[in-house]
Amino acid sequence: MKHEMFVIKDIEKAQNFSTTTVALITSSSDDRINVMSAEWTIRSSIEPFMITIFIGYERGSYEMIKKSGEFGLSYCSERQGELAHIAGNYSIRDTDKFSTGKFRVFSSSMIKPPLIENAICAFECRVESEFRVGDHAAFNGIVLEGYYSDGEKPLVFHGGKFHHIGETIKH
Ligand SMILES: Cc1cc2nc3c(=O)[nH]c(=O)nc-3n(C[C@H](O)[C@H](O)[C@H](O)COP(=O)(O)O)c2cc1C
Predict the structure, then answer these.
(1) Contact predicate 141/125, CB 8 Å
(2) CA separation (Å) from 62 to 44, 79, 84, 137, 138?
């Protein structure tokens, strides 16, 4: 069977065709807590277990993570698109996102910021190091604790919109 392919050259639009997850990054400093959405997170070491997150310097979360040296990551389930929208479109600089009453949390055991309930999985991280990548800061986090919700499905971020995950491919 002939498979047609259309390749379009466009450096900006091309990145919109990649696919990611969304993590709700929680942070805390000076007795305030915050939550922001981040699609740029990745496991970056097996042993020790580490996750690296990429945070814009202008984010309120940047300052809070820098100051406290820790962060929580709660990966959105497919039922948490609204949370990803709120956390990713409002800043602690002018909005207390927790005052919306939409974010249900549970206490972390090793870090101060809480984690978000009903996430598909969640991790507590201590910042091990930080480096600059262009216009974002990369925080390398040592994973101190992890949780998962069996039965939840992940939220998929593609083309600037949230999606459900598709069917398993059998081969
Ligand atoms: C789906 C989604 C993914 C995002 N991913 C990132 C990311 O990986 N890194 C980042 O710095 N900002 C990312 N953002 C933008 C921040 O979440 C946004 O600027 C937020 O308002 C920052 O909040 P804060 O100022 O309270 O920290 C994302 C936004 C959305 C909607």
Answers:
(1) yes
(2) 19, 26, 18, 8, 10
4 CA to middle of ligand 1, Å? Answer: 36
CATH architecture of 18-163: Roll (2.30)
Ligand 1 mutation pick, 36, 65, 91, max ligand atoms within 8 A of CB: 36
CA 38 to centroid of ligand 1, rounded, Å? 5
Q: Taking the CB of residue 161, how many other CB atoms lie within 10 A of it?
A: 8
Supply the pTM of this predicted model: 0.96
pLDDT digits (tens, 9 = 90+) for 49-96: 999 999 999 999 999 999 999 999 999 999 999 999 999 999 999 999
Closest CA to 44 of 143, 111, 144: 143
Distance 96 CA to ligand 1 centre (A): 15
The ranges assigned to domains in the chain are: 18-163
